[in-house]
Amino acid sequence: MDEEEIPPDHYANWFALFHLCQNIGSQKAIHMSSVEFAKIINLSQQTASRRLNQLEEIDWIKRKTIGKGQRIKITKKGADVMLTMYKNLKQILEEILIVGEVTEGMGEGGYYVRIQEYYIQFKEKLGFKPWYGTLNLQFNDLNKELLEESLNNQIPVRIEGFEKENGEYGKRTYGSVDCYKCIISCLDNQEKKINAAILRIKRTHHKKNIIEIIAEPYLREILKLKDGDRIRIEFSKK
Predict the structure, then answer these.
(1) Most buried residue, 32, 108, 152, 169, by most Cβ within 10 Å?
(2) What pLDDT does 205 receive?
(3) Residues with Cβ < 8 Å from 148, sequence gap 6 or more?
(4) Cβ(230)–Cβ(187) below 8 Å
(5) pTM for the whole thing?
(6) In the chain, which segments carry CATH 1.10.10.10?
(7) Is the domain 8-91 a CATH 1.10.10.10 member?
(8) What is the pLDDT of residues 6-33, one digit of tens each?
(9) Which CATH superfamily is domain 99-234 in?
(10) Rounded distance, CA 73 to CA 10, Å?
């Protein structure tokens, strides 16, 4: 069997293997009867027993009878099957989720966040005191398209522009900024989710596939981020 693809006639076996792996967890093996396995996969005892026989025949598991039950162990071939499915699902998910990579910034976002006329509006309109800096995320073309499509379906929070004295250079105009509330988390660890906002800055020196995000905590620290880490962006359901 091709290790890169699971034939359709083995889909049921993969489903059974998946549930076995869930119950084995970090253990090397598990003691389980076919009756117990039937309850796990919500099928009859006869079907569960047949699944276990098939898994053993294709060398995805090894079994040893112990009393009225059996000791089940996932083989290297079975582990390779799970790894293949993990890689395939991971690729699919990364294509349909909005994911960006942490990248080094130029300090531009932090400069603007510190300007009090902006900062006060961020605090009042977004509902949090932003950290004096932004997290920069770089997107591939597909994820940038997914992001833009999602942003177009969101109602932005408008941070109004203003004019400000700039010493001997006279007044300087600072443009408006559209903010989009979102939730971010590390792609490989969804436990910690942070409320944040995407900034759409009209005047920026960043490349088109880089966006800036603000949040109350220092994101690199609280999420233990380094350049290249992948961040998932979610938008609240309306």
Answers:
(1) 32
(2) 53
(3) none
(4) yes
(5) 0.62
(6) 8-91
(7) yes
(8) 777 788 999 999 999 989 887 888 999 8
(9) Riboflavin kinase-like (2.40.30.30)
(10) 19
